[in-house]
Amino acid sequence: MSSQPKKSATIEDVAKLAGVSIATVSRAIRNPEKVAESTRKKVTNAIARTGYTANVMAQNLRMQRSKMVMVLTPSIADPNFPGILIGLEKEAHARGYGVLIGNTEGAISLEENHMRFLATGVADGLVLLTGHEPVAGAPENNANIRLPPSVAVGRPLEATESSFVGVDDVAASKMATEYLVSLGHRRIVFVSGGVGDILSERRHEGYRLGLAECAEKLADWRMEGDGSSEGGRAAVERLFIKDTVPTAFFCFNDNTAIGVIAALRLRGFDVPRDFSVIGFDDIPFASNITPALTTIRQPRTMIGAQAMSILLDKLEGKGLGIQEEMMHGDLVVRESCGPVSRG
């Protein structure tokens, strides 16, 4: 007895099983954001039961679309990354796309590998958390590699016109500095994230604007760090060689602030009785150190969702050209800042 091959499922089969029209099934596949969630679930279940998933994949291949987006990040261990990824994935899934993660670890060779993989057409778009355009591949291959539409997140691409979504570093840093001034601090040092770091420069600009709001003329006092807790410790050691020390530290990020607090406590000082310290980012560990860190909170999930929305609009022909979305950062007051010490 010969068995006949099973007939492939059609879009009509999906529509009948889901109890909707063929047009609704098509919309749920192509533009899921335009379909009610309950209807979308019916269509998704019907696709799974009929085996129509293969047909959808074939359709995407014919249209030269993968319905996937690659996220290129220098480190998945960055405490800012999970929140951004949640926003990216939530928006992508709502619109029928999947997400791939390319972790470069700051290595050119790994970045090249991800770009070769991307050249196979595995992703329609690219989200960049690296702060630079990706290396297009090995010299013998880069002539054939064309990057898909992209959007930068968290850190803008320097010397490149590209859409960008991140926190308003200048406004948030100005707010943090004004808070320290309101507590009576007049000798406030900015511990940077390194020479040439674009985020560090923007936050330094906000710090200067915050100082300028004070009726008194306050000195722009900058110490170079590198964005790490060890850089924060080293900055404190260099400061204590000088005749004058600050009463407050505004740090490029929370890791730097944690290093500053550790170095001050090692010298026998109390934070915030002797010195005030404020960070930037509100990483998960910020509320768990002693004292709990006052900082600027980034709306990471919102940043990720908006970045993905801009990218998918571009992929679907609805983009508005180069866009820059700067989101508001919130001052989170905890225990590491207090009135200026009279000692």
Tell me about this structure.
The structure is a single chain. The protein has 343 residues and is of the alpha/beta class. It folds into three domains: 1-53, 434 Repressor (Amino-terminal Domain) (Orthogonal Bundle); 68-167 and 302-327, Response regulator (Rossmann fold, 3-Layer(aba) Sandwich); 169-299, Rossmann fold, CATH 3.40.50. Helices cover 39% and strands 14% of the residues. It has helices at 11-18, 22-30, 37-50, 53-62, 81-94, 108-118, 169-182, 198-212, 229-239, 254-266, 300-315, and strands spanning 68-73, 98-103, 125-128, 150-153, 164-167, 188-191, 221-223, 248-251, 276-278, 295-297, 324-327, 330-332. The longest helix is centred in the last third of the chain and has 16 residues, at 300-315. The radius of gyration is 25 Å and the shape is elongated.
What's the structural blueprint in terms of helices and strands?
Elements: H1 11-18, H2 22-30, H3 37-50, H4 53-62, E1 68-73, H5 81-94, E2 98-103, H6 108-118, E3 125-128, E4 150-153, E5 164-167, H7 169-182, E6 188-191, H8 198-212, E7 221-223, H9 229-239, E8 248-251, H10 254-266, E9 276-278, E10 295-297, H11 300-315, E11 324-327, E12 330-332
Parallel strand pairs: 1-2, 1-3, 3-4, 4-5, 5-11, 6-7, 6-8, 8-9
Antiparallel strand pairs: 10-12
